[in-house]
Design brief:
It is built from two helices and no strands. By secondary structure, it is mainly α.
Length: 69
């Protein structure tokens, strides 16, 4: 989704601070995307069920490394 089209985006003058939870989610999503690249997986080519399984597996690995996330 384009940030400009995001329902949660605000004009620059009304920017809201990013929460720790949002930053943690962003970091987790970036880690998942990087793992996919390293694994040679094209995320956009995965079936929805395969994508869900892959993301769940990666989140479990991240939570194992960082249980405080």
């Amino acid at each position: 989704m384009n940030l400009r089209q995001s329902p949660t985006s605000t004009p620059a003058g009304n920017a809201q601070p990013v929460t720790q939870e949002q930053m943690s989610d962003l970091a987790a999503n970036m880690a998942i995307a990087m793992h996919a690249l390293l694994d040679g997986i094209e995320i956009v080519a995965l079936r929805p069920d395969a994508l869900t399984a892959y993301v769940s597996e990666m989140k479990a690995k991240i939570d194992h490394v960082n249980p405080y996330r």
